[in-house]
Amino acid sequence: MSLIESIGAHYRTNIGNRYIRGAFRVLPIDQNAWNVIESVTEKSEYYALQGYHFDELYERILALAEFVYHARRELQPQLRTMLSSYASGSVPSGNERILRDMAVNNFASNLSILADLVNKLYTRAVELDMEAHQHGRPVYKTLKGLSEIGQYLVPK
SS3 for 16-84, per residue? Predict the structure, then answer.
């Protein structure tokens, strides 16, 4: 499994699952960023066949890093309360309640795992970018926002 596929599988299973996804509406992430996140977490098979250009790959890495940053700050501290209020009076029972509680209890750890995977992808992309542009300027040095990657991925 490639690193991009690992990111997608981890995101779908542990972060963007049916128990937590409803709370994402509080995150200050625009629709374009959500589309970019979806393209790397849901449609990685398409890109595995087509390949990524460095600028596209960095765009996806940055969107995922911003997601991690905002999820840690705006979502994680109040996730349990938010999910209780979104339930609209219908409290899950039995296994559903247990699975929801597990998703909530493990959310911080799962965000850290996602951050580590995104950091590995960024590091590998930079290595490949520098190899591909030995006699020119690597793409990562030309894109705005990439200098904040470390701040987005490291918890404070």
Answer: CCCCCHHHHHHCCCCHHHHHHHHHHHCCHHHHHHHCCCHHHHHHHHHHHHHHHHHHHHHHHHHHHHHHH
